[in-house]
Amino acid sequence: xxxxxxxxxxxAVIAPGAMGAAVAHRFTKAGCTVLTTLEGRSPATIExxxxxxxxxxxxxxxxxxxxxxxxxxxxxxxLAFAESFQKAYGDAAGGRQLAFADCNAVSPETVKTISKxxxxxxxxxxxxxxxxxxxxxxxxxxxxxxxxxxxxxxxxQFIALEQYGLRVVALRGEGSGIGDASAxxxxxxxxxxxxxxxxxxxxxxxxASSPATAQALLHELHDSQPAVLxxxxxxxxxxxxxxxxxxxxxxxxxxxxxxxxGEGEAHVHHGFANVFxxxxxxxxxxxxxxVLKKFVNDAKAxxxxxxxxx
Length: 310
Known about the structure:
- By secondary structure, the chain is an alpha/beta fold.
- Helices cover about 55% and strands about 10% of the residues.
- It has an eight-stranded mixed sheet, sandwiched between helices.
- Helix 2 links the parallel strand 2 and strand 3.
- The longest helix has 30 residues.
- The radius of gyration is 21 Å and the shape is elongated.
């Protein structure tokens, strides 16, 4: 599974969404062969994969050829993909050593369940989580990574992928193991994406009381919490096209909080999941989306007008 700097690895990235394709592009630019599976994918996804230099392959072919498999999927698909890959691996390449890195926004309990899929096989497992947006030529998100005790060599091999375009942050220290990289992602996304959920909830609830209430909220935020209003103008537009993905992620965060703190505290992000589902159903031009877009546009106008008068 190890490769030298003169022999770039064969890496599978599943799937070629916005994040997966951007990560794959970093690898292919560095000389790696990147495999993915395009069966049943949309024309837009196929084109995105080809633009990133990814090669179509079956799961059986991936199991026989790849040194690394990076799972980058919506949270609701993470376990099912691991199970499908394990079956393909068992049928086509049982005994061949490779590494599987789950890079999805799932709870520690979920990632531990995923890791158990590969128990008893030669597939080694890395708990990884991505903090940040898709990589570009001048930006790299952080891939946090943790492994079970005794797998430090595997963690070192994952860190070695930095020479091919990743930025890896290893989680080491007392008590670290499978689940900790995912826990970090849950805590970070619970704050960052939770802000978008909270903002959307309050804007929609204010507007449900009356449009005048929503306008009063906007102006009070501008007067007393201008940084919050500025952030809303960035976070709400960024959330809208991703709401479908964030539903499952909020459910995973809710599970994470429930395991750590209890049932009552877990309701916070479960509520945000409901809000993101509501927004998703309102796309592209439903009432809720219209309310949120209007609030953002009005906020930008107020901020611009205020800046111009100074």
